[in-house]
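hey team, just a heads up i'm posting the complex here instead of the shared drive bc the drive is being weird again. everything in one block, sequence lines first with there labels, then the predicted structure for the whole assembly after. its two chains so it's a bit long, scroll down
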Amino acid sequence: MHRHISFRCVLTLVALLFAFSRLAWSAEDVATLAARIKEVGKEGKGNQVASRASRELSRRGAEDLPDLLLALNDADPVVANWLRAAVDQIAERAVANRKDLPAKKLEAFVLDRRNSGPVRRLAFEWLARVDATATNRLIPGMLDDPSVELRRDAVARTWADAQKVLDGGDRPAGLAALQKVFWSARDRDQVLDIAKRLEALDEKPDLTRHFGCIQNWQLIGPFDNSDKAGFDDVFPPEKQIELEAEHAGKESNVRWFEHTTADQFGVVDLNKVIGKHMGVTAFGLSRLDAREERVIQIRVGSPNAVKVWLNGTLVLRVDEYHHGMNMDQYIATGKLKTGRNTILIKICQNEQKEDWAQNWMFQVRVCDLTGGGL
Amino acid sequence: MKSIVAAVMIFASTGSVLASEWPQWRGAEGFGISGDRDLPVRWTEDEGIRWKIDLPGRGVSSPIIAGSRVYLTACTGANQDRLHVLCFDASSGKQLWERQFWATGLTGCHPKTCMAAPTPASDGERVYALFATCDLVCLDKDGTLVWYRSLQRDYPNITNQVGMAASPILHKNTLIASLETDSDSCALGIDKFTGLNRWRIARVPNVNWVTPVLARRGSGIELLLQSRTDISAYDPETGDQRWQHRADGLDMISSPVAGNGPIFVPAGKMIAIRPGKSDEAPQVLWDSPKLRPTTASPIHFDGRLYAVNSVGVLTCADPADGEILWQERLKGPFSASPVAGDDKLYLVNEEGTTTVIDTKSEARVLATNPLGETILGSPAISNGRIYLRSDKHLFCIGVSN
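-- predicted structure starts here --
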């Protein structure tokens, strides 16, 4: 009997504790719950607390959306996905139940360019679901927007308008609008399509400048990369840049030499420039002068394993061979200092024998955070 | 009786899903077999379609069905950096919810595939969606986030620029993800409730896209992982290796299938192996170059082994000795793996045409059903209906209730 009573007591206590705990979490504000989620670490560390906080957030009403969007602003990409799920769930439920979203606050958030680009886009998409005028009112003013997704829509719309002007026979005005939209575009597919249209009008769009592709390099190699060991081996250019020095290469001594690629996208074909080798590595050095300190992106394409250093700091490391090459395949973010800056790239070729594994090449562009060339 | 045993086995393996559901890639057991009867035979773009839903973006993943819900993934964006998990009512096709996530991993891939390549898995209460970006999401059936992990943040060298594609699978309370690449190659056993690792094992650093499978040996279940150079069995709850068969040239895309004892391993030539009673290396029973599959995985159905090759030749063999029983040239190519049920094989080519094969009759081809849209994901079968996803639409085929 006593045992039965004490078991019931324990059960009641557990239920009360659970209810109290649920009550305590439901009383927490959005920022506090978001802060709990921001504690998540690698390999799922903190997931259980984050899960509870996320569930609590997802129960909130639409009036909490602005605070949640603000919490998303400074979230790292992992935390951002935790928080985004709650935003979508709250907004989806409100729309399904025909409840209002805080449209004015969403619009203010969208228009404030200090907010994170992807989060502004998220807010815009929910705003556009409940305000049929939002797209026409807001998108045309976003041709220079730091949010690449919002800008993409503005580019598409302005480009269509420019085409209408051209179709109407006003070439100077249409061309000016097309030039403007060319320099505003950031996504490669849009840039290339607009460039093609400009070329059809006998214009010469400067794709190299648009993308910020580096064409001038100091190169040195080949060094040894037998059995792919060279990727982790430290060669002299990784320790110190001495452009006049001679170093022991894979088969003979090697020296730095200057190379300017004629490719408008900055592709350097090392098989042509250094020679056809397998199991080798080479280095490319480029120098940039900056008037002021600024955050930049170094965007790399290569079918080979690559490492990139900005001013001696490793900012990119990809140990992968022959899985294709695309512009912006890898994106590293770093900070330029005032004055002279150096970008060093290491390009490793392995020893695969297949026809498709013979390429040894790279492409680097330096751009702002939207992908616009510097 | 057989179906009751099968239902119990499936319950033990994946949780609370029922036998007629299709809770992960190639169904509850991962071998493409459904126990449903009266499956659809003929359909066109205009006839035999129960419902058809517009999708927000591409995907080569398959739909899955758990309870009364269909789950599907897709990706959108100029750089495929928007990842979608969608949930539909299986009966009406009504969208119940959609969640989006931002890609945290690399989005480069071969143009044929995309970031929504792995098929999700469900235990009936939750859905687990892995993307080629190595973003891994667990949502409950109402779309509330249970946990999320960026596996590329956890292990920076696990992606590849062809595009990750192996689907996660569930065993009891463990979600298993194969992340085999040229660099930090591994497989993970993840606690399905918390998203924490239960185990992590290093794998051969050779990129592959093979979805793992679970095979019964004796009274236990083993996890089979296949790379170009090995097929290895592990305890799915601990990650401890049980046995290994090493061979060069094993297939890097199609998955092995288990029969009643033997395991059929896709390679330059299909290899049949039989694991021993203890953990010694398995015995090779036979091999057959004519049974070489390509992207589509083989299927072992009703006492026969089938494989479709790159030019669309469907080969049927005796699983006992690999003897070729017949071949039929179909219009390929095929990326989707065949599925089977109700004495029929369903093979969907990349143009979206499904060839239905009668496995009991000499006539063999029962129907060819065009949908006129690119389909690379494998079909799903549940409650007498067939679910197909194209680049643009999700189809539910079969009008019965």
